[in-house]
Specification:
alpha/beta
């Protein structure tokens, strides 16, 4: 397994928690500090390796081939996500699988009010703008958060169609790019309960089958087989 943009090794922690067996795991991230902390936390796992690397180059694993490559929320942080996908393709074995979870660029139903305005045929962009102004007024925004100060930004945000077009450049046997869920409740509400979140995801599937909702989900799931 190659984890591109592993961050705090979230994927590895989920694999360990689910007791999923794997031959080896390699996590790469551009942050030296993040890699150092991951090495410290997982030093007892002999089949786990962490390397500092650029997701658009993958130079540290240039001569390796992987059965599974995962990019969990990494591509939208890159200036050229298509370059990273090219590197990922080159480092997959035949029949190897690539899984990505990404942010959907400019999805018109980006908030629960956006979803309902879209459902009712009202311009969701104007509603979202109005909703954002109210939230900013309530929050005050007196001081920027640490997240805002240190976040790398989203220069590589893409839509599902843009990812489909990028993936057409490579000879994947199968590609599946789809929206994950629609925000039907306010963020603090569905984040407060895993059960409520699962209900929302399940209900979203009904709407995501309809053409006008098909590609406007909050997140994008990418699944490819080489």
């Amino acid at each position: 397994i190659l984890d591109v943009g592993c961050g705090n090794a979230y994927i590895l922690k989920q694999l360990n928690q689910a007791d999923i067996k794997f031959h080896s795991y390699t996590g790469i991230d551009i942050s030296d500090a993040m890699i150092a902390e991951n090495r410290r936390q997982h030093q007892t796992q002999n089949n786990v390796h962490f390397l500092t690397d650029d997701a658009e180059k993958l130079a540290s694993v240039k001569d390796k081939k992987f059965d599974i490559i995962i990019s969990y929320g990494c591509l939208h942080h890159l200036d050229h996500p298509e370059t990273s996908i090219e590197q990922i393709y080159q480092r997959l074995k035949h029949n190897g699988k690539f899984f990505g979870l990404e942010v959907n660029r400019n999805h018109p139903a980006g908030t629960f009010v956006g979803f309902y305005s879209h459902l009712l045929g009202i311009n969701p962009e104007k509603i979202n703008l109005w909703y954002g102004k109210i939230l900013n007024k309530i929050r005050g925004h007196q001081t920027p958060s640490d997240y805002g100060k240190h976040h790398p930004g989203h220069p590589g945000k893409r839509t599902p169609d843009e990812y489909r077009n990028i993936l057409k450049n490579y000879q994947f046997q199968r590609t599946n790019v789809r929206s994950f869920y629609l925000e039907m409740f306010p963020y603090p509400v569905y984040r407060s309960s895993m059960i409520l979140f699962k209900i929302m995801v399940h209900c979203s599937r009904i709407f995501l089958k309809q053409p006008k909702f098909r590609d406007i989900g909050n997140l994008i799931i990418i699944e490819c087989t080489k």
